[in-house]
Specification:
Oligomer: single chain
Strand content: under 5%
Largest sheet: none
Helix content: over 70%
Number of helices: 10
Shape: globular
Order of helices and strands: HHHHHHHHHH
């Protein structure tokens, strides 16, 4: 199980370090009722990730049953395709970077998230997890690797849980900090994080996409073994 967990950790860390969800959880925790709002966002995020990874892993495991070599080649093709996609996106984001001294555009959700209801925050958490061009391919990549590894049901569930928790550390970490430290004591640090993330949004995205492209293309090259 652990080699498979190690293979999907890059995808988990890339999801965790995605700047837009990080900005979202920071803004949620600066709301008037931060713990309640943060819990709603986290529930949506965790449920969306868990359901998506489980579905992809189950489908891959079902297809791979009795067709291990073909499934392995299919997984390698998926890794290669997603790696190339991320390379193209990295170039695209780099070319669209703001001019020096120009503030980057704010994500549309930034100005609305503090006004959302509990249900709205749950849905926003789910959307932050999956409804963007980077995270969904990462979930497909990780789920296909988990499902195609030939693990027992218990090991597959455990590996999927570890993946979801690792992908959620930047959502759960700030929430736990507010719970244990207090909202007033955390507010200054959260605002600093928000300012830094908004200022460096494009750079973070380009670096993540470039690194992920190299990792996934490297994994996918096993197709030519």
């Amino acid at each position: 199980m652990w080699p498979v967990v190690g293979a999907v950790l890059p995808q988990a860390m890339a999801i965790a370090l995605s700047p837009v969800p990080m900005i979202c959880i920071v803004l949620v925790l600066l709301a008037p009722r931060p713990v309640r709002a943060g819990l709603c966002f986290a529930v949506g995020w965790l449920c969306a990730l868990a359901i998506a990874v489980a579905l992809v892993a189950w489908l891959t495991d079902t297809v791979a049953d009795g067709h291990e070599d073909g499934a392995r080649d299919g997984i390698d093709v998926v890794q290669l395709a997603i790696g190339v996609l991320f390379g193209v996106l990295a170039v695209r984001y780099w070319r669209k970077r703001p001019e020096p001294g120009t503030a980057p555009p704010r994500p549309a959700i930034v100005d609305r998230i503090a006004t959302l209801s509990g249900l709205g925050l749950v849905l926003t958490g789910a959307a932050a997890a999956l409804a963007n061009l980077k995270n969904l391919p990462l979930v497909v990549s990780a789920g296909s690797q988990l499902g195609g590894a030939g693990l027992s049901s218990a090991s597959l569930i455990a590996a999927a849980v570890i993946f979801v928790v690792a992908a959620s550390i930047t959502v759960l970490g700030p929430l736990l900090a507010v719970v244990f430290v207090g909202s007033e004591q955390s507010a200054r640090g959260l605002r600093s994080v928000e300012t830094w993330l908004l200022a460096n949004l494009n750079t973070i995205t380009v670096v993540l996409l470039a690194v992920l492209s190299a990792v996934l293309v490297g994994q996918g090259l096993d197709l030519f073994r």
